[in-house]
């Protein structure tokens, strides 16, 4: 008998996912679930899920969950964490949810230094509604609502959320990662772990942006979508830790 | 002896909320309800509670959503323009069957309107307000005492039926001072096994959600909500009827306008005019049967409210054209006025009123 090298993590439910082929949500779910499981937090974690493709994340994570209105996850998570300060709370939000309609909520949650973690999945498009332009859509990128490509003179330049949030004192950890290569997946997991550690220390708000493929919305094969992230997205959205502040009394 | 304290209506709500065990209040400033968040900002931290001023009404109602999902007694308050902003969150609260207390200290509208009192949010309060088929349990106080009493009641009913309760007040009630008896035992919050907490050893996951892409599932959910509202209609109708037994004309008014109606009734009675007052206390459930029955014994109704005729439509609806329904309304921040109301009463009873 061979050795079992790969198994589903305890943090995920053993069920097929509804995500499209080549979509990165599955990988990101798995990384978050692995981190929560390995840190021993599974029993006290609460997920606040968004509106968008990951609206059914509660079907996959093996944790209690609250489904928020579009963009309001940081406000809902604030209510959750204020009532249950001993719980580990994370929001899981897409770019339309977090960077467009929920911009005020994420900015003020970060400003207050809310002690929850945000996993920000940036695939530069509104996936669930059929591939419309997002605040993070790249210049020139064709979407159903930017059929001639995003024009900066008309729609502005793509927004860099972690950099913006890192300017706020309440935000203690901010990083951008990708999951398009095995090496990047490893770094992504490390960053997610850092973000949850930041929450556990009680330092303040933590966010990890994950560049994510949407082959369906982008009209690409999964392989081409991974290449698009490595060649195009990272130019506008550079990978790395943007801010990592540990409070003086932290461990 | 029960303590009697002179206090503002807005503060009476806060005092009662503390007594009801509410420890989470999410605020956004707006006139004329700001005394309530200010009171809570002072008092909640002393009792180990959380007062949090949000970035918007939208955020504050969603914070209530998160807190209520955790099983806490939580509340938010606003006034008309701000309360409009909360409607999205209220639809979600109703859909997710999360108990909480909402307060709208109404001012005149539409738009930014005025900071002066109004009663023009009746449609919004009683007919849904946000999207989808849902109702709130709507309590309409007409005194500072009732601001206190109905806050206690609102939390209890919200928990009992797992739905948001709305205290629909107005700027006059919020701002005026009256003596309040700080009595009435709050119903303790029931167990909430559905609340999210993190699993803590529980095998089953607790999920608070409102999306149902399966049409049968969503229709079943809507039917269940409607069954609950039917139960509320059967069990929770509250109203006050004053001298309606022999009344030729019944004034129908809620909130501060009911106080005006009671004064006008006294003056009319002094003139020998047989006038009564019917005051809906629950605006949802609306006292339909009581008003329908009253239509059989009285000759006419006169609805008085600080709007262009909103509760009027419900009175017309439930009395089924049995008797004429007249209307007297003021807007713009004007209160309904005893003398004007009396004049209308006299016109109607002299057979001179044009509907």
Topology:
The complex is a heterodimer of chains A (251) and B (355).
Chain A: H1 25-38, E1 45-49, E2 64-67, H2 73-83, E3 88-94, H3 95-101, H4 103-111, E4 117-122, H5 152-155, H6 161-166, E5 171-178, H7 182-201, E6 205-211, H8 215-218, H9 222-236, E7 240-244
Parallel strand pairs in A: 1-2, 1-3, 3-4, 4-6, 5-6
Antiparallel strand pairs in A: 5-7
Helix pairs in contact in A: 1-7, 3-4
Chain B: E1 4-8, H1 9-19, E2 24-27, H2 35-43, E3 50-53, H3 57-69, E4 74-78, H4 80-85, H5 87-95, E5 100-106, H6 122-126, E6 137-139, H7 144-161, E7 164-170, H8 171-175, E8 177-181, E9 207-208, H9 215-235, E10 239-242, E11 249-252, H10 256-270, E12 275-280, E13 282-284, H11 288-297, E14 300-305, H12 311-319, E15 325-329, H13 338-349
Helix pairs in contact in B: 1-2, 1-7, 3-5, 10-13
What would your notes on this structure say?
The complex is a heterodimer of chains A (251) and B (355). With 251 residues, chain A is α/β, with parallel strands linked by helices. Chain A has one domain: Rossmann fold. Chain A is built from 9 helices and 7 strands, in the order αββαβααβααβαβααβ. In chain A, strands 2-1-3-4-6-5-7 form a 7-stranded mixed sheet, sandwiched between helices. In chain A, helix 1 crosses helix 7 and helix 3 packs across helix 4. The termini of chain A are far apart. The mean pLDDT of chain A is 96. In chain B, the strands form 3 sheets. A 7-stranded mixed sheet of chain B has the order 3-2-4-5-7-6-13, with helices on both faces. A 5-stranded mixed sheet of chain B has the order 10-12-11-14-15, with helices on both faces. In chain B, helix 1 runs parallel beside helix 2 and helix 10 packs across helix 13. Chain B is an alpha/beta fold and 355 residues long. Chain B has 2 domains: 232 residues, Rossmann fold (3-Layer(aba) Sandwich); 111 residues, Rossmann fold (3-Layer(aba) Sandwich). The longest helix of chain B has 21 residues. The chains are: A alpha/beta (251), B alpha/beta (355). At the A-B interface, strand 1, strand 2, helix 2 and helix 4 of A face helix 3, helix 5 and strand 9 of B. Strand 2 of chain A pairs parallel with strand 9 of chain B, so a sheet runs across the interface.
